[in-house]
Specification:
337 residues
């Protein structure tokens, strides 16, 4: 037990064990419910699998900051397994971590693939994507996750990952094909859960920053204009608490909503973020967004957001409050290009 305790940072044995246990329970328990096939089990299974993947994604994010374990290799092992559960392991954990560290250091959104230009060049596909987004199907995120498969065959820097992508793709698609054959309702339930999962992550990402997008992820010597500028980082980062009145609700996103506190000290573990947020801002965080304003903005601009490249104005708080914030798609830390 002492050896197990020494793995975790900041007395994290209990909270991290509970979080990982929750992921395993909801994900695999949710699959069991999906396979039962009753209407009630399908509904519960969809929600369980979707939220299990959500918490796995945020645990992966914390692993990327080495915020869970004392040793890098332990964070890496957990992060890789969480990557499998999120269904994003066509790409590597290491690539995801690199992209996210660039986001923190460069104070921008560094990407390699300009999906907007790609869609504009394909007007029919663009119309299809807009139609799907109107129906709340996260088509842009599905394209980005599809690019995880295509990336090694498109980008020379990822050429070495071709074998890995082929193996993972064959395995996952074969298993899913068998699922469609033997349990089609379970396959449909997983597809719905996956879309809910991507939609929730997108919602949490859409208004947390007012950063510029730079297509410089593969350019290691690029220096964005606000790199290392802590004042810019703080004033262009926003905390989108699910609830300030009932802080436990923020666990639905594993406290990812305390985003200013996270950017102030990125190695702070998820279970310490509420207290750290309070120590920084007390009961009044100047960068906090209105949750209902975010919901209104997210709904009203779901189609316009397809080609949006910026968040709107310099002060997202005002545009969110008025339901006018457009937000940006395809900024997930799970897609590293």
């Amino acid at each position: 037990m002492q050896i197990y305790k020494n793995i975790w940072r900041d007395e994290g044995m209990l909270p991290n064990t509970l979080a990982i246990g929750y992921v395993l329970l909801t994900y695999f328990g949710g699959w069991a419910l999906l396979c039962v096939g009753a209407w009630w089990s399908l509904a519960l299974g969809v929600l369980a699998v979707a939220h299990g993947m959500t918490i796995a994604a945020y645990l992966l994010h914390d692993c990327g900051h080495n915020a869970l374990c004392k040793k890098v290799e332990h964070n890496t092992r957990i992060g890789r397994w969480m990557n499998v559960i999120t269904g994003s392991h066509y790409g590597t954990y290491e690539d995801m971590r690199y992209k996210h560290m660039r986001h923190h250091v460069d104070n921008c959104e560094p990407v390699a693939f300009d999906y907007r230009a790609w869609l504009v060049e394909r007007p029919v596909l663009h119309k299809v994507v807009r139609g799907l987004e109107w129906c709340y199907i996260p088509a842009v995120e599905l394209i980005m996750h599809g690019m995880l498969i295509a990336a090694p065959f498109v980008y020379e820097s990822k050429k070495a990952q071709r074998g890995r992508v082929i193996r993972v793709t064959l395995l996952r698609f074969s298993v899913f094909a068998l699922l469609i054959w033997f349990a089609p309702l379970a396959a449909l339930g997983y597809a719905v859960a996956y879309c809910l999962f991507l939609t929730f992550l997108r919602f949490m990402d859409s208004f947390q920053h007012n950063y510029e997008i730079f297509y410089t992820l593969d350019t290691t010597d690029a220096k964005p204009p606000y790199k290392g500028n802590r004042e810019y980082e703080e004033h262009n980062t926003y905390s989108n608490l699910i609830s300030a009145r009932w802080p436990w609700l923020n666990l639905l996103a594993l406290n990812f909503s305390y985003h200013n506190a996270h950017h102030t000290k990125p190695t702070t573990a998820w279970y310490r973020l509420p207290a750290f947020h309070h120590s920084l801002y007390g009961d009044s965080c100047p960068q906090q967004l209105s949750m209902w304003g975010q919901v209104k903005s997210f709904h009203q601009h779901r189609v316009g957001r397809v080609l949006a490249e910026e968040y709107g104005t310099a002060d997202v708080r005002e545009t969110v409050r008025d339901g006018k914030a457009v937000g940006v798609n395809a900024l997930s830390f799970l897609t590293a290009f």
